[in-house]
Design a protein that fits this description.
Blueprint lengths: L1 H26 L1 H12 E6 L6 E2 L5 E13 L5 H11 L7 H10 L8 E8 H4 L3 H5 L4 E10 L7 H4 L1 E4 L2 H6 L3 H4 L1 E5 H5 L1 H5 L3 E7 L5 E8 L6 E3 L3 H14 L3 E7 L4 E7 L5 H4 L4 H8 L9 H4 L9 H10 L9 E3 L2 E4 L2 E4 L7 E3 L1 H6 L3 H11 L1 H10 L21 H8 L5 H8 L9 H13 L2 E2 L4 E4 L2 E2 L4 E2 L4 H19 L17 E7 L24 E8 L6 E7 L5 H18 L10
Parallel strand pairs: 2-10
Antiparallel strand pairs: 1-8, 2-3, 3-4, 3-5, 6-7, 8-9, 10-18, 11-12, 11-23, 13-16, 14-15, 17-20, 18-19, 21-22, 22-23
Length: 595
């Protein structure tokens, strides 16, 4: 009996062993196979090098320079940390900030090496590279520093890159490895293409995490971008504004929408942001009264003054309520209720038709258009022609300005609309605010009959971005637009034109419109106005001159907005003339006799 009991327990033990063998070798095979695979297979991510940005002549205007970063092992005790830093100080510059930075990031939850010095030049590490690698506490990683060789001349177009924050990493997890992302300008609006995609290596490692076999490699890829911007023209215009000390914005655009220059002065150096701008430099930028950080061409909003008059004239004629050839008397003011709305010219302009109204920028003529059409009709059609809405330019932070109507004021101020506000809006004053790029786009519409979508980027890799021209004019407007063009020609060429005496002689005619946009009201009891140059700088009007040329075969729009420049023709005529000369010199406009 005792033998049977012993044999039973032996048999039971064998059953347990056989069951365990079954579980390990057969039932748990897939689990342990997967666990084993995870232990030996590893994916190493490869960072793409950020794409290069070229100008229209394939000159690099944003590129990368090889640099190195020094990192320290986490969780070093103070004695070992001091010894490591002392060792490092023999070869590179170390200060107290390095010690503090390490301490700040040395969390118990952080198991990654901690960066202490970034963007070290190759020649500074070349001779000491092997020595540093011998120290087990030090790690060296290659990196790239974004370089903007044109500095402040192209900063509002290019923008800049900076370290990705957690919000940006959450949106794009690959930034955890890439670390750098576009923060403004083309760097931001084309960030996906410039950043590219991560690559990776699939490898087999041993227990010591040493690679013993490489299985597969997928290489990282990013895109290069070519702009329509010509850095030669951009530099020329920037230096011109700097020399003349004219604050403001210039847009040079083909009538099909390709932007060849956007210049804002003053500006800032985008290289300041790549490593992280200092508090001192940042305060200097944001406290500057002339707003060097603002891309005034697309985000600066200004009263347009008379530059909206060509479009408004076309709307009025096409409505059937205004005969363009019928002359209206201008005594120098129009009286509505108990208030006089004055013309810029004391004594008035006499008898005025649409041509003279544009050529001499007759306010009274446009006051009467305002009374004829009403603000809702005016706002609706001016929006269609490019004002009060975003143009769609491929840059971030564009503002749409304001093209007010009755509903807008009710929502904004919970107030009704007054007839006097319609008169102010009819001459581009009051609540009306526009950007220089909107004015340039509308000028192209007057020149060609098509509303372009402005474009900074010409192509991504080899994919060309085609012009986008919108057909927004009615049949009547297309029929009458030659009348508006004639008026704009007279502005720049006929005796008495508001720009005629300020433009230099060119081998072809241009057409355009001046604007003198007041920034403060003039009391009714003031009989004699001060000249612009007699006013304090901040009380002077903004000066506009928007043009297209050559007149008969429009190819380019040049729009200038000079902040507190006074009269449009006087402030901007010389600058605009010089730009057209440069366009000829650079071969953009071919001259074959007068056109």
């Amino acid at each position: 009996m005792r033998l049977k009991v012993i044999l039973f327990f032996i048999f039971l033990l064998y059953l347990v062993i056989l069951g365990k063998v079954y579980l390990i070798s057969i039932a748990s095979h897939n689990y342990y196979d997967l666990l084993s695979s995870n232990n030996i297979h590893k994916k190493i991510y490869l960072k793409p090098v950020r794409g290069i940005i070229y100008d229209s002549n394939h000159i690099p205007i944003a590129y990368n320079e090889l640099r190195f970063s020094l990192l320290l092992k986490p969780h070093l005790k103070e004695k070992e940390l001091n010894q490591t830093l002392q060792f490092l100080s023999k070869y590179v510059d170390i200060d107290e900030k390095v010690f503090k930075n390490y301490k700040k990031q040395n969390s118990v939850y952080n198991h990654n090496y901690i960066p202490i010095l970034e963007y070290i030049k190759y020649n500074k590490l070349f001779n000491v590279f092997p020595l540093l690698l011998q120290n087990k506490n030090i790690k060296i990683e290659s990196d790239y520093l974004r370089i903007y060789p044109f500095k402040e001349k192209l900063s509002h177009i290019l923008g800049y890159v900076g370290k990705a924050n957690q919000k940006e990493i959450d949106k794009n997890p690959s930034l955890k490895y890439i670390k750098i992302t576009g923060k403004n300008g083309i760097e931001k609006s084309y960030n996906k293409e410039l950043t590219g995609k991560l690559g990776y290596k699939e490898v087999i490692v041993n227990a010591r995490n040493k690679i013993i076999k490489e299985l597969n490699v997928t290489y990282p890829k990013s895109s290069n971008i070519e702009l329509n911007i010509d850095s030669r023209l951009q530099t020329y215009i920037f230096n011109l504004l700097k020399k003349e000390n004219k604050k403001g914005s210039i847009v040079v655009m083909k009538t099909t929408g390709e932007v060849v220059a956007i210049v804002n002065y003053p500006s800032y150096d985008d290289n300041l942001f790549v490593r992280g701008i200092s508090t001192k430099e940042w305060k200097k930028l944001i406290n500057n009264h002339f707003n060097p950080f603002l891309n005034k061409a697309i985000a600066g909003v200004y009263p347009p003054g008379s530059v909206i008059k060509p479009a408004l004239g076309l709307i009025a004629i096409s409505s059937g309520r205004l005969n363009p050839y019928k002359k209206i008397f201008c005594p120098g003011f129009i009286e509505v209720g108990k208030r006089k709305f004055r013309d810029w010219k004391v004594g008035g302009h006499g008898m005025v038709d649409i041509f003279k109204a544009i050529k001499r920028s007759v306010d009274v003529y446009y006051y009467k258009i305002g009374l004829l059409l009403g603000i809702d009709y005016i706002a609706k059609h001016l929006r269609r022609m490019g004002f009060g809405k975003k143009t769609g330019i491929d840059l971030p932070n564009e503002r749409k300005g304001i093209m007010p109507d009755k509903l807008w004021k009710l929502k904004r101020y919970q107030q009704g609309w007054f007839i006097g506000e319609t008169l102010n809006a009819s001459i581009g004053q009051g609540y009306v605010l526009v950007t220089p790029i909107q004015t340039a786009v509308d000028t192209a519409l007057m020149a060609t009959g098509k509303l372009p979508v402005p474009r900074i980027v010409k192509k991504v890799d080899n994919k060309i971005i085609k012009p986008n021209l919108q057909d927004v004019l009615s049949k009547k407007e297309k029929r009458y637009i030659p009348l508006i063009r004639r008026g704009m020609w007279e502005v720049c060429n006929a005796p008495g034109g508001t720009a005629t005496n300020y433009l230099e002689k060119l081998p072809f005619d241009i057409a355009g419109k001046t604007g003198t946009a007041q920034v403060h009201s003039i009391p009714q009891d003031v009989k004699k106005r001060k000249r612009e140059d007699e006013l304090a700088y901040w009380k002077r009007s903004h000066a506009w001159l928007t043009t297209y040329g050559p007149y008969k075969h429009p190819q380019f729009v040049v729009t200038a907005m000079i902040e507190h420049g006074g009269h449009g023709g006087h402030a901007a005529g010389k600058v605009v003339s010089e730009i057209y000369k440069k366009l000829i010199q650079l071969g953009y406009i071919k001259v074959k006799g007068k056109r």
